[in-house]
């Protein structure tokens, strides 16, 4: 056989195993312990670091009721927060278990804790009064039983009433044990009563509990012996069972008891009274002494107590009585709306939070029973969230996908709880959740590429153009700054030509551009946001320099005459410069000395190149080509044409080609502007060394092409 120590050890092992298997912590503490008493080591049993407790990341959930337990943030111990009276918390319950939940904030995890409040012998048995008076007829036969008022002891088990003891003559005590373990004392007539011998009998009834030390309560019983009265009241039934809904209105009649007495007159008049009644029952039920009606004087509440047991006496004028038992069963009505409590909730969440991130932890309960107490929770559709069952009546609201702040920056998530009653009752709670920005968007330029035209000779500091980029993020992540990617232009840093304003994206010229030096600038501008790490993008910018007529033409050949004696072409110059010129006319080798190659001044070709633009140079070359073509066909003999045939066109293209042509095949001619007379001087050299003669083909080949 197991001893007490072995049994206690086995009990502890079983409790520990049960707690580990159920995922809960279970502790035991006696009632009436002082505030701050140790209950259990939560940190150790949950295998958690003390730092989590010290930082406030672990706490007892508050459901809006009195908190009887607290957590020590330094030790992780569970302590009593109030003195606990077991009889007050668990009236009429064999086992008193108080439940609390611990939440780990960072993880939004719930750990249940069950604390069994063990009974101590802190209550004395009480009969509710100091004296009981009974009236009996002297003709009462020995063995007749009279139920006595039971002693009440809120304690349980061994600390409750264990025994009764009666002192006195003519009577004995018989204790009957009910199905629930209750002990009911009955007074039994042991000897025949004789009023002439003794009109009254004084008895003392003692009730003792099994605590250590034992507590005892007493009541005096005074029995009055009356003259002969043959009949006592008799109830129509010994037990009455009534079922009523909890929402029955106050004042309603629950049951009517009926007892009859065969006697006549005062001895046959029956009155009713409660014989055994709890404190709470006395506040709820009313008994009409004349009619035997039991009615409501306060509301019933199934959730507080589902059944009430009463004992009623019917006694006549001779104080003879009968006792009946009344059991009132309260049925549940769907009168409680599901209660929803937000235990922990996030007010904001990053948009890149992983799917399954917990945003809220809520507790749902319905104090009704059965189908009326079954609660179904749901979320509004179309939102990236879902509900998960967490622990017992706890639910978690988690993300079902990654969020996008740029699409939706704030959510109002409605959680609805509905019971299974008919009609169903429901409640709801709204979670306001703000989505925090993450730097997941790079700046985007308004255009794929930018271009601008700037006239040369611009002022330094002139605005060229403005680039603009936007960032879909928010706050610092959306703040865009611009910068110029470094490069080189004709050996000089690009930053010496242009600059970009970091805040506005405005591109400014740092110098006066010269078309003849730089025709265009191709550069890259970058836009970078303020995130960490920063995101950036680039765009190309093309700046075209527009030419202006800011250069005079320059005569390339022959060298310009010194001083103003050179005169001007046609008697006047072009705007923007003074012409220096020398007439050059191509003449056949067979020309006689002293003859003019042309009689018209318009046939003179002035070879001059302006540095103004390529178009002007091309125009001069075109005139030269046309002049040569006409002259070749009409003036040059076949032998001279043969000298040009086979020369590549590229020899006459560009300034270098013109110089080569003029130096290799030319005659110098001067013209005095005042006398309009010509003086011809033939050059001493010939062109035969630079333009080799070749056989004339059947068909002439154009010198510079068909045009």
From TrEMBL:
Domain Cadherin: 22-127, 128-235, 236-340, 341-445, 446-555
Superkingdom of the source species: Eukaryota
Record key words, sorted: Calcium, Cell adhesion, Glycoprotein, Membrane, Repeat, Signal, Transmembrane, Transmembrane helix
Subcellular compartments: Membrane
Residues annotated as signal peptide: 1-23
GO molecular function (one): calcium ion binding
Gene3D superfamilies from the UniProt entry: Cadherins
Membrane topology summary: Single-pass membrane protein
Subcellular location, principal: membrane
GO CC list: plasma membrane
Entry keyword annotation includes Transmembrane helix: yes
Membrane spanning residue stretches: 604-626
The keyword Calcium appears for this protein: yes
GO biological process: homophilic cell adhesion via plasma membrane adhesion molecules
Protein name according to UniProt: PCDG2 protein
